[in-house]
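Sorry to interrupt, but I need a hand with the structure work. Leave the record below and I will have a look:
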Amino acid sequence: MMFLFYLLLFVFLFLCVFLTFIILIQESKSTGFGASFGGGDSSESLFGTSTATVLKKFTAYVGIIFMVTCLILSLWTTAISPTPKAMVEQISEEE
């Protein structure tokens, strides 16, 4: 069970880096990091003329997957962490 937790944690960290990269390569209103990947001129785009639309949709899908994994990991960590009452009982038993 812990293998799945760490696997999901690895996927979450990968999504963090991947989502950051996708956001940075998008065309901005000013010349930004996206201009170095061809975002300055939409007619000479690397992925075609509809790159902005495709990247926006892809970013939305990756963002939704990121939020779902974040929610799952937060619920999972609260489920596997010991409750404060159980920790107090364990400390009192040790004494």
